[in-house]
TrEMBL record:
It is found in: Cell membrane. It is a multi-pass membrane protein. The keyword Metal-binding does not apply. This is Sugar ABC transporter permease. GO terms for cellular component: plasma membrane. It comes from the Bacteria. Keywords: Cell membrane, Membrane, Transmembrane, Transmembrane helix, Transport. Residues 81-293 form the ABC transmembrane type-1 domain. The chain crosses the membrane at residues 21-46, 81-106, 118-138, 176-195, 216-234, 274-294. GO terms for biological process: transmembrane transport. The lineage of its organism: Bacteria, Pseudomonadati, Pseudomonadota, Alphaproteobacteria, Hyphomicrobiales. InterPro entries: MetI-like, MetI-like_sf. Belongs to the binding-protein-dependent transport system permease family.
Amino acid sequence: MTVSVGVKFGNSFERWRERHLRVLMLAPAMLVLLTLTIFPSIYMIFAATTRISPNPNLPWQFAGVDNFLRLLTDEQFHVGLWNTLIFTVFAVGTEFLLGLGLALLLDRYIRRMNFLKTVLMLPMMLPPVAVAITWKLIYEPQFGVLNEIMFQLGLPLQAWAGDVNLAMFSVVVADVWQWTPFVFLLMLAGLASLPNEPYEAAAIDGASAWRQFWDLTLPFLKPVIAIALLLRIMDALRLFDLVFILTGGGPADRTKTLSLYIYQVAYRFADPSYAAAISLFVLFATVAFSTWFIKRMRLAD
């Protein structure tokens, strides 16, 4: 009798374990996701719809959509949005063209030079803070390497990160230097997976190298290009580290991005409710753009 009860209990436990094993294995990851992602998101939505006083003794007041309506008339927000879009277009566009060009060059002519490929990928392995400090030293007006080269070539010295006309260009150059290897790596992997038969058939038909690139390489690489552009655009829209260290948003707010403005609103102006509203705007805009971009790429196929 005791043995039969034990067997039934063991079978029931086995069935319960098989039924709930997936849930048990996912529970730690779900707990981490709930703690680090879902709860902060809910808290941010709650903060964006309230009015939080810097004085912790004062109660929070419900504000509804007032914080979001401020976005329509906030000139600093408009400046940050415009600068973010300008940076994203020029930085990501340049990184894509350089990354694709380097991948085509190394895939066709320098396939065996693995050491060169490793060197090209080194910048993206560095911490963004280290990259920002390095380029800050390079752009230093009096003792920077760049101005020393300009002096040796007999060219006029520049303030670079401190010039209103060159500040955004300087930030773009630093970002391109760090993240072009990321696009290069994705493009190189995509080129390595291309089939040879269509190219052999095109060569027999007399198609030029440019025609093969336009009619074969680009269509084959479209999924990889979509991934590279989407990841880089999403990352560029939240640029903070590089601008914070390199220019601080100046001069004259020429490099102030939305992420930097969120930081200033939250910690310098002590307005966390409005900072949460701007953060939600950036989040929803990024999600909307990503959804639209993915749908367009699917329709293009």
